Amino acid sequence: MTRTRVWLTPQAHQRLRAELAALRSTRTPGDLERDARIREIQELVANAVVGQDPPDDGVAEPGMVLTVRYDDDSDTETFLLGVRGAEDADLGHLDIEVYSPSSPLGTALTGARRGERRSYQIPSGATVEVTLVDAVPFSHHRGA
Fold first, then answer.
1. What does the pLDDT look like over 65-118, one tens digit per residue?
2. Is the CB of residue 6 less than 8 Å from the CB of residue 85?
3. Ordered DSSP codes for 64-91
4. Which stretches make up the Transcription elongation factor GreA/GreB C-terminal domain (predicted)?
5. Could you count the other beta carbons within 10 Å of the beta carbon of residue 78?
């Protein structure tokens, strides 16, 4: 199985390590949900790139704040490409959404360059066209 590197803020990494310690200290035999969460956190922590910004090269990848435009609409949406759930609690003060690189949108955009148009399929089966307007490292995003 190939392990995927994940990007985490230092705060999210610390929070996950604290959660893991708490789960391990109160672990009871046969608690399948707890065991699954422990494995999930161990995998995230073991494969984390913590707080290191990707290069500021305009290429969409985890740790980048992406601005996109859908279907040639003039409105844009800005979000962090990161680990959903691990980052959300730490980014609430920034008022920014987090989209997973493994989501349909994240998968479509990963590797895209500024101005590049990509498409992805939504659960209804429709295809959505999206253009990458900008991609900047998280630490360069306003308010970060």
1. 999 999 868 889 999 998 766 654 555 556 788 898 889 999 999 999 999 999
2. no
3. EEEEEEETT-S-EEEEEES-TTTTHHHH
4. 58-133
5. 16
User: Is-contact 58 115, C-beta < 8 A?
Assistant: no
Contact 83, 44 (CB under 8 A): yes
- List residues bridging with 120 in a β-sheet: 128
Instruction: Assign domain 64-140 one CATH number from 3.40.50.300, 3.10.20.30, 1.10.10.10, 3.10.50.30.
Output: 3.10.50.30
CA 22, 23, 25, 28 torsion-angle sign? positive
pLDDT in tens, 105-143: 999 999 999 999 999 999 999 999 999 999 999 888 765
| Residue for token pair 């910004």 | 53
CB count within 10 Å of CB 43 equals 13
